[in-house]
Fold this protein.
Amino acid sequence: MSEKQVRSLVKSCASHGKVCYKSVHDFRKAGVELHMRRLKSWSKEQLVEAIMQFVNEDPKLNPTVQRNGVLTPKYVPNRLMNRQQRWLINQYITQLYGHSRNDKMCPYKRSKK
């Protein structure tokens, strides 16, 4: 399915369910919660492997960045292994939802009061 077809399907489902299109973000919140629970049981190796598999699908997802004057890919397995598991989980979920920065997922993680 193309992006346009997916967007059309979601809008159609929202109208049939008599909810606003903006309610789609509620599904994102539930999805983030589900992924957070599921990924807590994963090891660092599994998370790194999943991130690398995801970013290797498209060169745009693993851009070349300059570190200490040397151009290297943004995501490298040995660098990812040095990160905390919490960061790896957040990064993987961020990528799944099409964002490029971890902080963009904060609205979906806020708890209900």
